[in-house]
Amino acid sequence: SSFAVLNGPNLNLLGQREPQTYGSTTLAAIEASCAEVASELGCELSWFQSNHEGALVDEIQRLAADGTDGVVINAAAYTHTSVAIRDALATLDAPFVEVHISNVHAREGFRAHSYLSDLASGVIVGCGVQGYELAVRRLVALTSTP
Ligand code: DQA
Question: Which domain of life is it from (predicted)?
């Protein structure tokens, strides 16, 4: 199977950005640990980060056209604002898992609402950067035939 991990705005700064909230692990290090999990489980993972809403929409459309088997998405702040990313995800035939590093329910009220969650197969919140790996494992479980 072939899965994609998508990251939204400011997640390129993981490791330096608000470390008390997001920890000290960089996005490159998360990518490396997810790559290990993927090779352990025998699946392929693509990786994409953008600070631009339209670029994320373009990438989701590309994945839908290529017939991805599943998507892990941390849309970051766009989670709370983007009907466009929601609509793009709605076109996917494959499942997606929404990830947030921090516990968005323990923060400002505006972070509690997601435009994505009701369409998601699952949501992983507040598990730190381990959430990405958990999401990859979940996609493998969801998409492997019994
Ligand atoms: C985040 C939570 C969002 O509210 C925030 O805008 C982010 C990161 C998280 O991973 O905890 O940029 O998605």
Answer: Bacteria
Does residue 66 have a known ligand-binding role? Answer: no
Residues near 118 by beta carbon (within 8 Å), at least 6 away in sequence: none
Q: Which helix (H) or strand (E) holds 47?
A: strand 44-49
Query: Is 100 noted as a catalytic residue in this protein?
Result: yes
The answer to whether 22 is a known catalytic residue is: yes
The amino acid sitting at 42 is G
Given the CA of residue 103, which atom of ligand 1 is nearest to it? 11
> Where do the structural domains in the chain lie, given as residue ranges?
2-143
Q: Please report, in tens digits, the pLDDT of each residue of the chain (146 residues total).
A: 999 999 999 999 999 999 999 999 999 999 999 999 999 999 999 999 999 999 999 999 999 999 999 999 999 999 999 999 999 999 999 999 999 999 999 999 999 999 999 999 999 999 999 999 999 999 999 999 76
CATH match for 2-143 among 2.102.10.10, 3.40.50.300, 3.90.76.10, 3.40.50.9100: 3.40.50.9100
**Is 80 annotated as contributing to ligand binding?**
yes
Judged by DSSP in three states, 73 sits in strand
Could you tell me the distance, in angstroms and rounded to a whole number, from the CA of residue 27 to the centre of ligand 1?
13
Asked whether the beta carbons of 54 and 66 are under 8 A apart, the reply is no
